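Next up, sample data:
>
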Amino acid sequence: MKQILDYTQTDFKDLVTKIVKDGQVVLHEQNLTQQELTKVCEKMGNVETNDYFMNPKDAPAISIVSGQLDKDKKPIGMFRDQELQWHANGTGRHEFREICVGLYCVYECVDTVLSINNNCNAFAGLSHEKKEFYRNIDVRLDNSGPRARLWPKDSDYEGVGEDTFRVGQEHYQETVDRRPLVEKHPFDGREYLYFMVPYIVKAFTKDGTEIEDFEDFYNTLWNDMIKSKYQYHHVFKVGDLLFMDQLNTIHRRSPIKDKDRQLWRTAFDYSNFI
């Protein structure tokens, strides 16, 4: 397997093209340090950095995703061993820029599945009438809404500080957080359905009229979009490096049975090629 560290800039452009086209790309048998993973993503665009509990001090572009605890019984990574429901990373923010997420496996768990739903393919599969209907819709976001939790409602998980790195509730405003349901991807121009499942709370036609039966609208959209034929499922092995576009896909994760499972997460844009 060719190592991504050996990629030329042409290889990286081809990689971005494939990520956007397919929604995700998996490279197997990679061998990377946290710093090398950061440099790889910088070849494609600007990389997000943070200073939270899950970010190593010497690799602030890396977010650890794990159920492991340190010697003081504190979590080393986000979301612990929880099942995560359908969502996309970061797309609910005002100034969302990091279009792509990379996940590199350093400790595997064969019982945990990452599922990815392709929103471009879902839109392409609609009838002409449905496409025109959805093109005429705007949706409103609110991360304090009834579906805002990423983990199941019946979970007793209280979080480990995830609310500190999500954009706060005060940033969700009627005039700011209304966006088109159908948008065009900035890399290739294909249309996709924007379905940030946890945060969509209202829908409007383009003339500003609110959809009265929102729950019926939401369920119809769900049934039109979330289908097995649009999905890819992945079980990580050590050395797997998976990239997934956050505009034209959403994803979910089954519960983690082996809490030592660990992924290194990065988020970046495609600015070197757009």
